Amino acid sequence: MKWGIIGTGNMGKILTEAWIDSGMIEPEQLYVTNRTLSKAKLLQKNYPGITVCEGADAVAKEADMLFICVKPLDIYPLLNKIQPYLTEQQCLVSITSPYSVEDLEHEVPCQVVRWIPSITNRAQSGVTLLTFGERVSPLMKAYVEQCCKTYSKPVQIKENVTRVSSDIVSCGPAFFSYLLQRFVDAACEETKISEHEATTMVTEMLIGFGKLLEEGHYSLPTLQEKVCVKGGVTGEGIEVLEAEIGKMFHHVFQRTHRKYNQDKWELEEQKLD
């Protein structure tokens, strides 16, 4: 099975690293290209067996599994360009949320899958979000799910929860990285702890926190109950969080969905032009 990636930006690079480092595919199975070809060649430098193609059409000719890892507004022109090289036997994969699987099926003859990765996949962990088009064969579906299991936990989702699922899985690491950095900054500003000390402690705390959940020792609510002793210091901190966080996360989801709807509108306008 030959795999192809059109667009070796952040997510295209993370997918390549996750696939090859986990042993899901061999470098010789992968064909890549990028608008700035030097980025694709840099990836090839790390994994010499990869084939760098001069353009998207060359990747489309070779790949059985063809990943479209470009910006939403670049997808429609790209599909028009590679359309002559696509076949019913291929599986076309999109990693972006605004372009629905149904929309893609109207544009191409291929089997279609949406496959939303997470930066956590780089550590052979986290979730891969999957949505399958109606033309995907049972054999292809099983193959995709098995491939994802090599380095992540595949979770099949419906179209109507695509954005929020992506917010949690794909955007979540950035959101919580930001919050943790603010946590470190506040500790340094309010006390005499150094940034290095605080960062080390927060990092190790987070790793241990993840292991507690992964190994099933606690759920999120029970973990809070265990640490938050009534009348204790943790309880004082929780009261501040309850008072000051308010509707913050509601506003985060409102903003991401607003952007999602804007992107979908722009894609529709692009088709009409």
UniProtKB/TrEMBL annotation:
Query: Start and end of every Pyrroline-5-carboxylate reductase catalytic N-terminal domain?
Result: 3-97
- Mind telling me which Pfam families this protein's record contains? F420_oxidored, P5CR_dimer
Where does the source fall among the domains of life? Answer: Bacteria
The Pyrroline-5-carboxylate reductase dimerisation domain covers which part of the protein? 162-261
PROSITE patterns, per database record? P5CR
Q: Which InterPro entries match?
A: 6-PGluconate_DH-like_C_sf, NAD(P)-bd_dom_sf, P5C_Rdtase_cat_N, P5CR-like_CS, P5CR_dimer, Pyrroline-COOH_reductase
**UniProt family annotation:** Belongs to the pyrroline-5-carboxylate reductase family.
Q: What is this protein called?
A: ComE operon protein 4
Q: Which species expresses this protein natively?
A: Pontibacillus salipaludis
